[in-house]
């Protein structure tokens, strides 16, 4: 299945920068909406063992006090903050500019009048710079502010992708990708005040072929080239190479910023091209297999100068179109076979790629836990790109290619995981097994999620060849970074005793040694995983904020999941800490103790559920809810959940224990809330945040002291008996406008979040005769 047509892509050529909104869900303290949001980091990484300057773009970045990294040991110093000028500031600068210009003109006409002083001449230059830069009112607010950091990466750290956040007085930001690199770095100084480790020579002239601006630079290999693509730009870099070199040019653009909320297809679609000194195109790539980021592997035909070119596929661009292109004769893995192994013994894997130092990897699996394992090959001290391998506790068998390719197929005993590959275009592998009537069969392919280019389709047939079930693609919300969910899954009931076959093929009729797969055949393996959104949580001591926990249920598991915190500091608590049976998400609240200090706190959410006779526990994966192309939402995993506690908040409390009982069609349920702010906030009101359909709030009646009674109404047409969940209420105070202000409206002030209230819907009353 083609990821997206170029016709559709062209529809998004224009970026709606003026209306751009942050694509990350944020949890933040009531009364403070200015939590920092990051849009990009440039450069998006640096070489280990160096100190360099990085510019962070985003919104609400004033009063940045520090940077936070998910890898311990990196240090950063805040050098400055810039924001767009307000209209008043622009007008004031223009007026001052006119005053200085009038003084200069007068001095030119009359030599007796004083000329501009040296300080005034500098002021003129400064005003011009500010009006040309910070006076740009066309920038989207989400991109307009910048913070400049001086970052030092210690030499003892390992190459990795980490996360960078900014901390301000208002809270902690969302994360952006920051790469700890191995190679020398070249950064375009036109986009950055200070360039680390090397300088490059930009030349923004017009390309005679494309009629668009181009930037040309000269670099020495191996290297990582950092750049930003602005509208219509084409960036080029020259380098010298020798005959026989097997060069890899690997771009990272979409990997740095996975989704753009206001662009189609929803990311920077980079293209890479390689030219010789005469301008002849030698290689081109606009995506590497299923990854939007292009990779070019090319053997140099002769000594000389070569030119690499990067641009957006349809010439879009702006500040967050940031890229890193690694160029050199370093190892690059294109595939591994098999994609996984069972636990308990040694396993051997064949590695495919360019400049790989070894062809096989021997991996002991004894003592390891089930899950994904990431490994890299090393050549002359340089690591390859990551290779993902699956380890599980089940029974693994290898495909017998000669037998599996026949119509009769390879006989297997269930349950089993088959390691195979579609080795050539239009190949099909078939596996035969004995089935029993009423047996539930699951056929699950894991390929794309492990980096295989296979776009699988699986088909279950009976002994006569009749199709019982088939599946092409199945979405996995846990794989939020995949642009195309190409792995197949089917679960069906065997209709009668007898022999059955499951076949697997590629829907694009492709095949190669890299088109590997793992095919599980057997009964369902019910389970779940958790995603916790957002990964950056801001709240005041004593107060609460909403947090969403998603349940990614597997193979028919529908039971309830109890949530909790692991190793959290004393006093932190989850409200409504349960995902009801059959539901895929719940809003809980995180409450900080009233005596919590202003600090960053790591947070780990866990979930427990009884599946069969086993108590299963899962650790919640931190995630960001990111929007793609105005519409789609993805749960993009993060490396850590960080809680920023600042200031003090007046806590809300809910009277009573147990769930709130709702009876549709009868009198409203009464919710008693202790609200200390009720005495000073004037009129107090509440709103439901993301409420279940059919539940609304009724009257709000002040009680004694700080108690407030809130009516909760249930619509019998929208709610089924037995429905469970949480209610999260946001509180607001309403203060009257001052007497001097005529026709002024009352001021509505957010007060905070009420800890989550569990509810349960009972039976609606029957008709009255």
Structure write-up:
It is a single chain. By secondary structure, the chain is mostly beta strands. It is built from 5 helices and 61 strands. The strands form 15 sheets. Strands 11-12-14-19-16-17 form a 6-stranded mixed β-sheet, with no helix packed on it. A hairpin with a 6-residue loop joins strand 11 (205-206) and strand 12. It is flat. The relative contact order is 0.10. The model is unreliable at 1-21 and 190-204 (pLDDT under 50).
Summarize the structure.
With about 775 residues, the protein is mainly beta. The protein has 5 helices and 61 strands. It has a 6-stranded mixed sheet with strand order 11-12-14-19-16-17, with no helix packed on it. Strands 43-45-41-39-49-50 form a 6-stranded mixed sheet, with no helix packed on it.
First and last CA, distance: 59 Å
Give the beta-strand count. 61
Kindly name the structural category: mainly beta
What is the mean pLDDT?
87
Oligomer: single chain
The main sheet orders its strands as 11-12-14-19-16-17
**Largest beta-sheet characterization:** 6 strands, mixed
Question: Can you give the helix content as a percent range?
Answer: under 10%
General form: flat
Tally of individual helices:
5
**Which spans of ≥5 residues are poorly predicted at pLDDT below 50?**
1-21, 190-204
Strand content: over 45%
Rounded Rg: 30 Å
